[in-house]
Design a protein that fits this description.
Number of helices: 14
Strand order of the largest sheet: 2-8-7-6-5-3-4
Number of strands: 13
CATH topology of the largest domain: Aspartate Aminotransferase, domain 2
Largest sheet: 7 strands, mixed
Number of domains: 2
Length: about 400
């Protein structure tokens, strides 16, 4: 049975501190509303929960393997949602996108070579190079303008940041934390730069199924520019879309045989075997979770509107409207909150946000609106008492 006839409850708060503690809710005191880590407060799709029950009832949790049915359901998802025909053999399943970023560094570069990324960026991007003995290289995005332009890729600055050591560009598409869906001109410049400088692109497309602007359709970078096939690794996972992060299951799409072999070779001994429950959840989510995803998008769009209305009343706080994800990037530099605005809001409003300093941009904060309306409303009321 699919989820087509199910009623989806995105309204009822779920206790997440007990009996199984969560990172999101356990880090802070009980009177804090946590809107930090990218982890939604919604139950996963009913079809996924049923499938997990069936798998658990089997009772044996030995070493798993990647079923052909999972490979084919991702092929179908890619074709129907992105218009990209992928080969099942391009898929390399592994326990998470963050491990994949580190594997890519180890497999596709040599010690001392450069790993380049733009900031602000999801914090693990900034740690890949140093953790793997490579050279960390960063370049800032162009800030929003008074003319309504949101965060932009500064093409000239990116090109200037490329050196003889640069080997890999870590890219985030759509972008975490700003929620940007990149323009065609930005992606074209990026692809031309990669070819011109012989760079490998690792494209984290983890939030690609959470485009909030209606009518928008994600196009994978590798699909839009097939000439990049020999130099691109695309990272997908059901974790953000279907709230399955704790089941540690992701997929690298690597069309080039040479790159794929290097990537797989590096995995041996560094990664555990496939998570049997994660594989079941992934296959079921892609096969049967579309109606739940559409319902989720409706909720997230309403929550984005609530947040926009609140921010409009906060003097000195600025936010470019997120086009994708359930994350908002707040500029708090003029809010009068001192050197660490997120810490001030934690102390004064009892709301926990992600500190922009960890993304490479102090004075900012990332807010996760992937929670119930009740919890989001409570948090916004608390923030308003401090910020207005």
């Amino acid at each position: 049975m699919t989820d087509d006839s199910q009623h989806f409850d995105f309204a009822t708060p779920i206790e997440r501190r007990h009996p199984w503690p969560s990172q999101k809710w356990q880090r802070y005191d009980h009177d804090v509303v946590p809107l930090w880590v990218a982890d939604m407060d919604f139950a996963s799709p009913p079809s996924v929960i049923r499938a997990l029950h069936r798998r658990i009832d089997h009772g044996v949790f030995g070493y798993g393997t990647i079923p052909d049915s999972l490979r084919h359901v991702l092929v179908e998802w890619s074709a129907s949602h992105y218009g990209w025909s992928i080969d099942p053999q391009w898929q390399v399943w592994l326990p998470g996108v963050v491990p994949a970023l580190h594997l890519a560094s180890l497999a596709l570069t040599e010690p001392g070579e450069g790993i380049l990324t733009v900031t602000p960026i999801y914090p693990p991007f900034l740690k890949v190079a140093t953790r793997t003995g490579r050279l960390s290289q960063t370049v800032p995005l162009a800030e929003p303008t008074s003319f309504g332009e949101g965060w932009q890729l500064d093409v000239g600055a990116l090109e200037a940041a490329i050196t003889a050591e640069t080997r890999v560009l870590l890219w985030c598409h759509p972008h975490n934390p700003t929620g940007r869906i990149w323009h065609e001109r930005e992606l074209l410049a990026l692809s031309e730069m990669a070819e011109r400088h012989d760079l490998i692109i690792v494209s984290d497309e983890l939030h690609c199924d959470l485009l909030l602007d209606e009518g928008r359709r994600h196009q994978p970078l590798a699909s839009r520019f097939p000439e990049l096939a020999e130099r691109i690794v695309t990272l997908w996972a059901p974790s953000k879309t279907f709230n399955l992060a704790g089941l540690t299951c992701a997929c690298a799409i690597i069309p080039d045989t040479r790159l794929r072999k290097r990537f797989i070779s590096q995995m041996r001994g560094l990664q555990p075997d496939a998570n049997v429950l994660g594989l079941v959840a992934a296959e079921t989510a892609y096969a049967e979770g579309e109606s739940w995803r559409q319902a989720l998008l409706d909720v997230l769009r309403r929550h984005r509107s609530l947040l926009q209305d609140a921010v409009a009343d906060w003097p000195g706080v600025y936010m470019s409207r997120p086009e994708a994800t359930y994350l908002a990037w707040l500029d708090l530099r003029d809010a009068g909150l001192g050197e660490s605005p997120p810490n001030a809001l934690l102390d004064q409003a009892r709301v926990a946000l992600s500190d922009g300093a960890e993304f490479g941009w102090p004075g900012f904060a990332r807010l996760n609106f992937g929670t119930t309306t009740e919890q989001l409303t409570t948090a916004l009321q608390r923030l308003s008492r401090v910020l207005t």
